[in-house]
Structures are given as C-alpha cells and as structure tokens.
Design brief:
Radius of gyration: 17 Å
Shape: globular
Helix content: 25-40%
CATH superfamily of the largest domain: K homology (KH) domain
Strand order of the largest sheet: 1-2-3
Length: about 130
Amino acid sequence: MEISTVNYLGNLSTECTHKSGCKITTDAPIDNFGKGAAFSPTDLMATSLASCFITIVGIYCQQHSIPFEHCTAKVEKIMSSAPRKIERINIRFDFSGNNWDDITLKKAIAAGKTCPVHLTLEGNVEIEYIFN
C-alpha cells in the first residue's frame, strides 16, 4: 500500500506528503551540504524511533487502563562518516508527569522497546534510552 509521495523541491529539499494530506519538508543538514532548514531524512528516522516508542507505550496504557498524559523525548542523533550513516541514537524520555510506580514504568518501557522502528534499527544502530 502506498503511504506517501516525495517530491524534490531543489536545493537538497523535499516535500513529503502522507496519504492523509499531512506534509513534511526535509532539508539536507549543514554538515552534508544543506541549509539545515528542516528535518533531514536521518533526523526523521531518529525522531521516528522516539515517536514510535511513545505510541506503543500509549497503546500499552490504553490496553491496561493506565493513565498516560505526559511524555517528552529529547532525541540526539550521532552520525558516522565512513560510511555516512546513523551510528547512534540517544533518547531521553521524561514520563514523570504520569505518577506511575516503578512496576508500571518498567512495563511501559518494555512495551515501548517492542515498537517496529526499534525492532528495525536494533542491531544496526546503537540505541540508548534514558528515562527520567
């Protein structure tokens, strides 16, 4: 099933249109000949990991009647140069606004680590999760 269309805008930028009509613009990063004016494709991949993790935690919480109203994730992406690829992704999660006990937090984290993006990247990219 087709999910999106990507059009080249010139000057190392693209416009990505989801089948829903939602649009994202990308730009090459400053360290790779771009302006860094938008997410780079590798920024989207790293950010997708955090978004997917949070989404799976949300699904887990819905299925177990656990209140889930707060999460912030700060994403860091580290590139290697030879070959140029994502070497490492560090994500710092803050779930503190949910007032979960330690058992609930551990179960939510375990659920999040089953997200499809994590499973796709696991073994290919170093991933570090930090939880507050």
